[in-house]
# Entry
Amino acid sequence: MWHLLQISGPLDCEFGAALAERVPLIGWQPERVHFPHFRTAPASAQPSPDPRLRVNKIPLLRGFARWPLSAFARTGLTVSRHLASLSPDPSEATLLCTSPFFAPVAERWPGRVVYWLTDLIAHYGYASFRQVARLDERLCRVASLVCPNSERIASYLRGEAGCAQEKICILPNATRAVNLLPQPSRGPARLPADLADLPRPVAGVIGNLASNMDWAYLEQLCVELPGLHWALVGPADMDIPDLVQREARRRVLALPQVRSVGRKPYGDLVHYARSFDVAVLPYRRVEPTFSGSSTRFYEHLAAGRPILATRGLEELVHKPPLLKLADTATEAAAALRALQANAFDDGFATQRWLASQGGTWEERASTLLGALERAEAPKRSSMACALRESTAS
# Structure
């Protein structure tokens, strides 16, 4: 039995579902309550239909991760008790943690622990760097395997959390295997119904349309390329603290050549990504985004269309020629004009198609299970030797 603690977004669901195809797994969705200690049994949540995943609710004290409530939350005791109640043998069950704030649970867990870290949480504003680094250190100490999704997060874990290199297995973000094309893209697919009347060429942006995007960059691109239409797919209601960026988003969303269609189910994003003439990843260089892994990139990689990106995410700096890097709107406009002159064929469709085969959640699940097997091989060998010696004596 595996326990994925916690399910807090589509990324967790996707990886959990891929793992659940290989091992029995329960995902745990947080339920903020005032008195979690009084819950004697976990509550079932609505199973995730897409992707298919068994999900239970885990009661957590409101503000359990913040001082001083963290000192009284008894998270380790309460949460481990709920997980153990659905484990035939807790000592044989694997705990897959996604947050440093579950270090107390990991320290109590009698079975294996795997730490899967997809964000540099130490740079989040709601907790101190030192507090999170200490929790990361505790989790790394008890984990058999530590899986950051980027080299920058791995470097942080080695330096700040003292994680041993031999425990680390980098698992970048990914896409679903069903999103892969049977052959390299030969041109954009038909636009979805809510974009069907949008004149081509169409540049597309998918994902959370919030503060990790450079809206000033995007606005200038719209001004320099008035004949290019834009499809923005994702929620655009999250607050942007930076006034310049916030106002730029407001103006961009009001432009006549820009169509914002809002949030779409994760499974529908593939149809949008395939329909674009070109995909744009206009990241701002801000933490924790800069140190993470770009799910958008792997979605667009599978869709096969040309990709233009900034250097606002360190992982993408290493991805040419699968994408084109352009840090300023002027550079990006020149690159888009050159693409348009060549019918949006950059010559790298085959390379993207080949690279996409290894960028699926199913591949990530297989990598994790293989790395865990190798990490535990010396321990099993040592136990076997000890058993043979005791038998011989």
